[in-house]
Amino acid sequence: AGVVNAIGEPTLASMGLGGTTPIGLVQHALEMLHATVGLPWVWSIVAATIAFRTLMFPLIVKSQANAARLNNVKPELEEVQAQLRDLMNSNNAIGKAAASARLQQLYKDNDCHPIKSIIAPLVQVPLFISFFVGLRRMANLPVESFKEGGLFWFTDLTAYDPYFVLPIVCSLTMLASIELGGEAGVSNPQMQHMKTFFRVMCVAMIPLTAQFPAAIFTYWVTSNLFSLGQVSLLKVKAVREYFGIPEMKVHKNLPAQGGFWENMSAGYKNAKEEAYVKHHEKMKRQKEKALGTAPLETTYEHNPRIKH
């Protein structure tokens, strides 16, 4: 690899950056936009953020469609889950298996599952970490051209914002996205409980992140604005219909919901119980198969068919 790029600056590889890890690939993408396309560093970060978030848009759509289908079948799901909870401490293996089978059939018939709702967040977390760590390493080294790669009052991307405008804008854009319902596209009692926590977190993060280099906030604010636009877009009825996202039903007279951690605990117990029932049924089938195919147990001392 060369030590100078197309615009005469040292390559990231020559500075020990880049590589084939997710962090390195993000750094190479930024370098390509800066050195090959010719964008200033600040716009390279913006462009790379938009590009990566756009690639993830189909996952967000699928996540919202799944969340809507889960919501629409919620009364039936809660009924079966209540049966499973009642059977949890009993020895009624047949009842457990039947309830578990009904639950799985509900998921299958309605093309939804709670696991599908966490796929998009699970993918976005590594993306955020890759950008965060990649930009922090570039700022801390520093990449010299980062010092003049910003704009407005934050021309130095390696330095923190002395006016604290960037951390405040970052917090406000994140809060706005949360208030609109978040990227999951669901507004339910659990989400309402979580909003209070996120509001506090958004305020607390201002002093906690105030010393971050401007490069990180360039990514973070861009990503938040993308999320805000994405959430707003996917609230439009015509857009939801185009992407096949079902209309959310409003259910009345549902049982009161517990808090966030109570629901997390209940979900874990349900998953554990389902796994137990599946294991029990598997062992039962294996035992039945063995009983049907294994040689009969000998109950006599001498085989009467054989003359001695």
TrEMBL record:
Region (Disordered): 282-308
Presence of keyword Transmembrane: yes
GO MF annotation, one: membrane insertase activity
Cleavable signal peptide: none
Origin superkingdom: Eukaryota
Compartments reported by the entry: Membrane; Mitochondrion inner membrane
InterPro entries xref list: YidC/ALB3/OXA1/COX18, YidC/Oxa/ALB_C
Basic and acidic residues biased stretches: 299-308
Principal subcellular localization: membrane
One record GO biological process: protein insertion into mitochondrial inner membrane from matrix
Sorted UniProt keywords: Membrane, Mitochondrion, Mitochondrion inner membrane, Transit peptide, Transmembrane, Transmembrane helix
Transmembrane segments: 41-61, 118-139, 159-176, 197-221
Entry GO CC: mitochondrial inner membrane
Residues in Membrane insertase YidC/Oxa/ALB C-terminal domain copies: 41-233
Topology in membrane: Multi-pass membrane protein
Listed Pfam families: 60KD_IMP (PF02096)
Family: Belongs to the OXA1/ALB3/YidC family.
This protein's name: Membrane insertase YidC/Oxa/ALB C-terminal domain-containing protein
